[in-house]
Amino acid sequence: MGVRIEDSADVSPQASIADGSSVWHLAQVREGATLGKGCVVGRGAYVGSGVQVGDHCKIQNYALVYEPARLADGVFIGPAVVLTNDTYPRAITPSGDLKGASDWEAVGVTIETGASIGARSVCVAPLTIGAWALVAAGSVVVRDVPAHALVAGNPARRIGWVGKTGRRLVADGDARWRCPETDDLYAEEGDALTPWRDE
Hints:
By secondary structure, this protein is mainly β. The protein has one domain (4-88, 106-169): UDP N-Acetylglucosamine Acyltransferase, domain 1 (3 Solenoid). 0% of the residues lie in helices and 34% in strands. The chain has strands at residues 4-5, 10-11, 16-17, 22-23, 28-29, 34-35, 40-41, 46-47, 52-53, 58-59, 64-65, 70-71, 76-77, 82-83, 109-111, 116-117, 122-123, 127-129, 134-135, 140-141, 149-153, 156-161, 170-171, 176-178, 185-189, 192-195. A nine-stranded mixed sheet has the order 1-4-7-10-13-16-19-21-22, with no helix packed on it. Strands 2-5-8-11-14-17-20 form a seven-stranded parallel sheet, with no helix packed on it. Strands 3-6-9-12-15-18 form a six-stranded parallel sheet, with no helix packed on it. Strand 25 and strand 26 form a beta hairpin.
């Protein structure tokens, strides 16, 4: 199947890109970055040094994925999303010198399997977005997001639950939720959602 890299893309020879992946116009993939099978990196997107991207991920146009981000399989990064990497951002040191790589410690965003980050959202590292979670467009995420959570706002807060299709779950009894598309059932326990298991 091969790898498709547009002529205007800037892909480091030290990056690893698996079969079936595409890197579109003006995108940049830095040294040490790894892209799994079947990934799409959209126009003008940035994938930082050493970033790890699983299989079948989509990083949409002009998204910025700064190191040391980790994306599991099936992650969706919407247009113009930013995954930050500096808890205390400054251009200069207290003495006024330009900060260098040794003057700060990069921290990353981890996104687990199947999660989606909506357009123009900002995820402020360090944090983890749980599997199959959905961050609504334009959100600012400053703390961990549980698996299957639907979060929105600034700062982002949980406003519901979603299933693997991304559809909002509907209440189906006491602490039980159902996907309106697949009829999959989930159990809510505190701030967590797990597949329903009949006892």
